[in-house]
Amino acid sequence: MKHILSLSRRELAQTDLPGQPFRRKQLYHWFHEKQVLDYEQMTNLPKDLIEFLKAEHPLPAISVARALTAEDGTKKLLFALGDDYAEAVIMEYRYGSSLCLSTQIGCRMGCTFCASTIHGLVRNITAEEMIMMLYLANDYSSGRIGRLVLMGSGEPLENLDEVLTFLHRIVSEDGYNMSARHISLSSCGLPEGIRRLAKEELPITLALSLHAPNDALRRQIMPIAKAYTIREVLAACDEYIAQTGRRVTIEYALIEGFNDGAQQARELSQLIQGKLYHVNLIPVNPIKERQFTPPDRERLKEFKNLLEADRIHVTIRRELGSEIAASCGQLRNQAIELKMNAGG
């Protein structure tokens, strides 16, 4: 059963609540237009309805446990969810504020270059928790958050029911009203999840975490590659492009001496040349638990130039917030270690 916070306006109108029907409209307004997440602050609701909502539909206990700001304006938020922590990153650009949000607490994908998988998967984050984290994050951004990236901790397609409920709520014109075209979802590549997402008629951007141009290399850093070949994953992505008309982004973390050579660039080009793909090159972010290092700037440019020579659109991700552990999972891992060291 959906939580009251994640219901559509129509679903909420059909919910059994005490009082007159117009109170349901007021409640929806408080949630999604005013983003008020405390029943006691909903000043035009009668006391008996507030008490009923607190007893029968309690809101998730979520608060910002830590908020760090980098010199470039990037903000890292650590949310306390009662049983654990979840992270989000606010990135400030000239065109507005963007939020990178987690969809799971931890992750079971096991990508060797990612900090979020170190403690494994704890649980899925619910739609109502994602809504609350987005709304709370607005208190820390320079303006209303208008772009969203589901690229924090976790694999969104493993939590697709909750993710879809969340997305439908925030793109609703009578709710938060974020443009679906300003939303990206990053996946390690679960073919059936990609196909299901394509059928939702949500014109969001799909980002595929590829990180290697062949199966042999990919299996060394991404255990999911043992379940699905690159051919299988790209076939699902091709279907996504055909059904949605949206370009797919290839996320490629460059690791020095591993996947950053001319041969790997040529292989990557052969996979996607002539198709509606864009490559986002990411110098791998060093984390203390792993020994990966990014290539130098010159080697990064050489890789980019080889792809562009084959008429592939390429960007290099701008590094943001490195001094505040802004990459996936790092701040949560710090909080867990502090708790363990304190004997908690």
Task: Report on the architecture of this protein.
There is one protein chain. The chain is an alpha/beta fold. The protein has two domains: 4-56, DNA polymerase, domain 1 (Orthogonal Bundle), CATH 1.10.150; 63-341, Alpha-Beta Barrel (TIM Barrel). It has helices at residues 9-13, 22-33, 47-56, 127-137, 160-171, 191-198, 215-221, 230-244, 262-272, 297-309, 330-341; strands spanning 63-69, 75-80, 85-93, 96-101, 104-106, 121-124, 145-150, 183-187, 205-209, 248-254, 277-283, 313-316. Strands 1-2-3-4-7-8-9-10-11-12 form a ten-stranded mixed sheet, sandwiched between helices. The chain has a two-stranded antiparallel sheet with strand order 5-6. Helix 4 packs across helix 5 (160-171) and helix 9 packs parallel to helix 10 (297-309). The chain is elongated.
Sum this structure up briefly.
With 344 residues, the chain is α/β, with parallel strands linked by helices.
Structural class: alpha/beta
Helix content, binned percent: 25-40%
CATH architecture field of the largest domain: Alpha-Beta Barrel
Number of domains: 2
Question: What is the strand and helix layout of this fold?
Answer:
Layout: H1 9-13, H2 22-33, H3 47-56, E1 63-69, E2 75-80, E3 85-93, E4 96-101, E5 104-106, E6 121-124, H4 127-137, E7 145-150, H5 160-171, E8 183-187, H6 191-198, E9 205-209, H7 215-221, H8 230-244, E10 248-254, H9 262-272, E11 277-283, H10 297-309, E12 313-316, H11 330-341
Parallel strand pairs: 4-7, 7-8, 8-9, 9-10, 10-11, 11-12
Antiparallel strand pairs: 1-2, 2-3, 3-4, 5-6
Helix pairs in contact: 4-5, 6-8, 9-10
